[in-house]
């Protein structure tokens, strides 16, 4: 009887763990939409497809998706992911409260979000240059070339400057509230600019404003791509090299291999005794990898935006590190696939850690 009871308990625990992974579901999909989960592309992605914690959602140039929040998030509403976007959907526990986050690395998203009655769950959007705190609102945010643009249709969004590459840039005192009729631009330098948002059709006006904002930056890049590359090329090469080295250590971690195998087989997360013995090994490698991975990730996405804009006339020019632009672009292309795999490994490893640690990240918060 005791064995039977234990089996039932383990089945319940496994079911709860599986449920805890689901943070939302796809309500609508158009064009190419990919989900990277546990280091691999999950297909097919269609209506009803479950989105799990730390899934990376990518849309093609003509792709888009709408994801509704699962009630376990403590939120109601949805996320509209636009064309050419990359967003990681994340849930964590901070001081015992459910914290939901979208890490927007490229493109734009639109959100309609509010808390369930009586729930203390929080929600925010993080970009390479901003953190947007939300209590209940409808808003849009776009990121390009290290900058972010945000506008609000309903409610209020607190926009705080943030830079992964310069953590000291900006402060809480520089945060601005965006309400209907106002918009904010946040640069990776930490500076914040606000302006009036046009009256009338919000969706049409946002499309126009965002289009002109991006076109202005594209013009700056195409006029002098070497200057933009010089700003980030050396940092990318240094941080990516170190990140790839640390990622190999994480990939070879015997405990993590065991966790991944269990996830693939659907055999559960193991016992508490296993967790006590195993946690330190994975936590050590994750913490060692995070600083360089975070820095390299920001540069990687930014260079990916930059490379297609470089005119042929600039390919033969010399950069500050002595390479020609063409040589740098070629090397970046060769390294990109390995880095993409390392980034997916990092998110997958953190996910497995959190599944075994009651939803708590080894990093405390995403900061």
Summarize the structure.
With 367 residues, the protein is α+β, with helices and mostly antiparallel strands. It has six helices and 17 strands. It has a 17-stranded mixed β-sheet that branches.
Model description:
- The chain has helices at 2-21, 202-223, 225-251, 254-265, 272-306, 325-356; strands at 22-30, 33-37, 40-42, 50-52, 55-59, 64-69, 75-81, 86-94, 97-115, 122-126, 130-134, 136-144, 147-154, 157-161, 176-178, 182-186, 192-196.
- By secondary structure, the chain is an alpha+beta fold.
- It has a 17-stranded mixed β-sheet that branches.
Labels describing this entry:
17-stranded mixed β-sheet, globular, 6 helices, Jelly Rolls, Methane Monooxygenase Hydroxylase, Chain G, domain 1, 2 domains, 40% helix, disordered N terminus, 17 strands, alpha+beta, 367 residues
Low-confidence stretches: 1-20
Whole-Å distance between the termini? 47 Å
Determine the strand fraction and express it as a percent band. Answer: 25-35%
The succession of helices and strands, N to C, reads HEEEEEEEEEEEEEEEEEHHHHH
Layout of helices and strands, plus pairs?
Blueprint: H1 2-21, E1 22-30, E2 33-37, E3 40-42, E4 50-52, E5 55-59, E6 64-69, E7 75-81, E8 86-94, E9 97-115, E10 122-126, E11 130-134, E12 136-144, E13 147-154, E14 157-161, E15 176-178, E16 182-186, E17 192-196, H2 202-223, H3 225-251, H4 254-265, H5 272-306, H6 325-356
Parallel strand pairs: 9-10
Antiparallel strand pairs: 1-4, 1-6, 2-3, 2-5, 5-8, 6-7, 7-9, 8-9, 9-12, 10-11, 11-14, 12-13, 13-16, 14-15, 16-17
Helix pairs in contact: 2-3, 3-5, 3-6, 5-6
């Amino acid at each position: 009887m005791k064995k039977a009871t234990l089996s039932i308990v383990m089945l319940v625990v496994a079911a709860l763990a599986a449920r805890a992974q689901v943070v939302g579901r796809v309500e609508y999909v158009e064009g190419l939409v990919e989900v990277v989960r546990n280091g691999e592309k999950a297909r097919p992605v269609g209506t009803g497809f479950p989105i799990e914690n730390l899934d990376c959602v990518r849309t093609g140039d003509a792709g888009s998706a709408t994801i509704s929040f699962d009630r376990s998030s403590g939120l109601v509403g949805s996320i509209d992911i636009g064309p050419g976007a990359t967003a990681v959907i994340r849930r964590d526990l901070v001081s015992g409260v459910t914290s939901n986050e979208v890490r927007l690395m490229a493109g734009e998203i639109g959100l309609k979000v509010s808390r369930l009655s009586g729930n203390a769950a929080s929600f925010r959007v993080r970009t390479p240059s901003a953190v947007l705190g939300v209590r209940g609102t409808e808003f849009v945010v776009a990121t390009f070339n290290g900058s972010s643009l945000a506008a609000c249709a309903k409610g209020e969004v607190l926009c705080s400057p943030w830079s992964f590459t310069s953590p000291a840039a900006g402060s809480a005192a520089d945060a601005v509230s965006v309400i209907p009729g106002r918009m904010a631009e946040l640069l990776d330098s930490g500076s914040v600019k606000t302006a009036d948002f046009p009256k009338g059709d919000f969706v049409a006006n946002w499309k126009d404003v965002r289009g002109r904002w991006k076109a202005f930056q594209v013009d700056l890049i195409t006029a002098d791509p070497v200057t933009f590359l010089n700003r980030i090329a050396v940092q990318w090469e240094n941080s990516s090299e170190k990140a790839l080295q640390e990622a190999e250590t994480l990939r070879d971690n015997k405990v993590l291999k065991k966790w991944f195998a269990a996830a693939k087989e659907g055999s559960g997360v193991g016992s508490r005794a296993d967790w006590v013995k195993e946690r330190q090994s994975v936590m050590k490698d994750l913490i060692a990898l995070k600083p360089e991975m975070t820095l390299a990730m920001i540069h990687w996405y930014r260079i990916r935006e930059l490379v297609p804009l470089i005119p042929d006339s600039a390919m033969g020019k010399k950069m500050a590190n002595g390479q020609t632009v063409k040589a740098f672009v070629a090397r970046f292309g060769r390294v990109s696939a390995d880095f993409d795999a390392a980034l997916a490994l990092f998110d997958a490893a953190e996910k497995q850690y959190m599944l075994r640690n009651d939803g708590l990240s080894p990093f405390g918060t995403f900061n």
